[in-house]
Write a structure and sequence with these properties.
By secondary structure, the chain is mainly α. Helices cover 52% and strands 8% of the residues. It is built from 17 helices and eleven strands. Helix 8 crosses helix 9, helix 10 packs across helix 16 and helix 11 packs antiparallel against helix 13. The protein is globular. It comes from Lolium multiflorum (Italian ryegrass). This is Cytochrome P450.
Length: 504
């Protein structure tokens, strides 16, 4: 644990050094900074000072260790919004090229229509559900069982990252990369994906001219990104090769099959174009980051609220009781956990407090005035702190900081039902035309995963372990989630019967 603390301190120091370098460059290139000038209120003393030239950068550096908490306090002081000027935000994630994550206009509409068609395919959805169950039963559960037997602390976030990576790659390529195998291969590709998201966050904190200069000089975080991008491209190439050598017929089900014969993505020589690489990498980010990050925070919240774990087990008990098997670990199909209201509530409540994408960005198409009274102009970019929205008293009430799944549960004719919350209030899955097309799939997968973990194991965070967000576009845990696992004992059958009687 001491080594972990040293590593974390080093990472924090490295990021501050990078910010200091960026601010130093800022002074050297003052004229270029005008394209990213903050417009802050000068009448509210609770807001940070808007200094000449450097704007609010000193305040950001001073609070970078708790950026999201800082943003929440800022919005609480300033009201529902805060504005600034900026452009070229698609370049922040140039690793994904012109794929649907960055695309606008006709290109975005065409790409989204393709994704929508894929997400509506019964065969692909069945393949994804089967891949999820297989990876839970033959990957995640055995890994947790080994950790429980060893009685040694382990990083649950890393384990879930491996799980989510494999589970995403299987329907994308039709083959399993095996990151969650018994031998636990190196995390080179997931680490490269993390670097892309960390650098994306860094690019949001400094003027565009600064990070572009750093990129040309290959210094600071831009050097890290330059190393990560070839790793991702090489992974895609290797997986496409592995897919090409498989002859089991599964290729008709994978996502790549929808692109491989399209001349927009593959050249006449049969070689993938950059557009295909970017699109596949986009899929990997969309699946891995949402599922892996959300599951880690959900399990963390469950370790802190044992009564929520008991309520989830109470919902699962009738499913387990209906089976004939008396031995082995219980694994749940997405169809089995789909109707479980409290499990959904526990998931959404965790995403309210810990959204996998803590910041959302929108581009303004035409001049307008927002409900908050802020004027926006065509070409402006609006940044939405989804993290802060989930912790605002004006949105969620006085207990907004509490993890309380019950806020999502209502009564419908005497039966518990999930309370409807509009997307503009609960934005982890985005809202409007760009709402997440994979929401239903990812929710079903995550519910079946957490059901298996909660039913078969007791998890406990190692005493003294600090859990806090990483400085990244994705809300991962900076120090990981170090826990111990204990296999639930032989009294589970008796407990199941007791829980079932409690529901009668």
């Amino acid at each position: 644990m001491q080594l972990v603390s040293v590593r974390v301190a080093t990472m924090a120091l490295s990021f501050l050094q990078e910010l200091f370098l960026a601010s130093s460059l800022l002074f050297l290139f003052i004229p270029l900074y005008r394209q990213f000038k903050f417009r802050s209120s000068k009448t509210n003393p609770a807001l940070p000072t808007d200094w000449p030239v450097v704007g609010m950068l000193p305040s950001l550096i001073a609070n970078i260790h708790d950026f999201h908490g800082y943003a929440t306090a800022l919005f609480a002081a300033s009201g529902p919004g805060h504005s600034y000027e900026g452009h070229e935000f698609a370049s922040f994630f140039d690793t994904m090229g012109g794929s649907f994550f960055n695309a606008d206009g006709e290109s975005w509409r065409r790409q989204r229509a393709r994704v929508q068609h894929l997400m509506a395919s019964p065969r692909l959805l069945a393949f994804m559900a089967g891949s999820c169950r297989d990876k839970v039963e033959n990957g995640l559960m055995p890994a947790l069982a080994r950790a429980a037997t060893a009685r040694a602390p382990f990083d649950m976030q890393e384990l879930l990252t491996r799980f989510a990576f494999d589970m995403t790659a299987m329907p994308v390529f039709g083959v399993d990369p095996g990151l969650l195998s018994v031998h636990m291969p190196p995390m080179d590709v997931p680490n490269a994906m993390d670097a892309v998201m960390e650098v994306g966050f860094f690019r949001h904190t400094v003027p565009i001219s600064c990070w572009k200069l750093m990129r040309s000089l290959r210094i600071g975080p831009e050097r890290k990104l330059a190393v990560a991008q070839p790793v991702l491209r090489r992974f895609v190439a290797e997986m496409l090769q592995k897919r090409a050598h498989e002859n089991d017929g599964a290729h008709q089900l994978d996502i790549v099959s929808s692109y491989i014969d399209d001349p927009e993505y593959v050249g006449e020589d049969g070689e993938p174009k950059d557009f295909l690489y970017a699109t596949i990498i986009n899929y990997m980010f969309a699946g891995r980051d949402t599922v892996g990050t959300t599951l880690a925070w959900l399990l963390y919240n469950l370790t802190k609220h044992p009564h929520v774990v008991s309520n989830i087990r109470r919902e699962l008990a009738p499913i387990v009781a209906s089976r004939n098997s008396k031995s082995g670990m219980a694994v749940f199909d997405p169809d089995e956990t789909k109707p479980l209201v409290y499990l959904s509530a526990a998931l959404f409540e965790s995403m309210r407090l810990h959204p996998p994408g803590p910041i959302e960005r929108k581009a303004v198409l035409a001049d307008d005035v927002l409900p908050s009274g802020h004027e926006v102009r065509a070409g402006d970019t609006v940044l939405i702190s989804v993290y802060s929205m989930g912790r605002m008293e004006r949105v969620w009430g006085e207990d907004c900081a509490e993890y309380r799944p019950e806020r999502w549960v209502t009564e419908d004719g005497g039966t518990a039902a999930l309370r409807h919350v509009p997307a503009h209030r609960f934005m982890p899955f985005n809202a409007g035309p760009r709402s997440c097309l994979g929401k239903d799939v990812s929710v079903a997968q995550m519910k079946s995963v957490v059901a298996a973990v909660v039913w078969n194991f007791d998890l406990e965070v190692v005493p003294g372990h600090v859990v806090e967000p990483k400085l990244s576009v994705v809300l991962q845990m900076k120090n990981g989630l170090v826990v111990t696992a204990a296999r639930r004992g032989s009294d589970v059958a008796d407990e199941t019967a007791e829980l079932c009687r409690g529901q009668q």
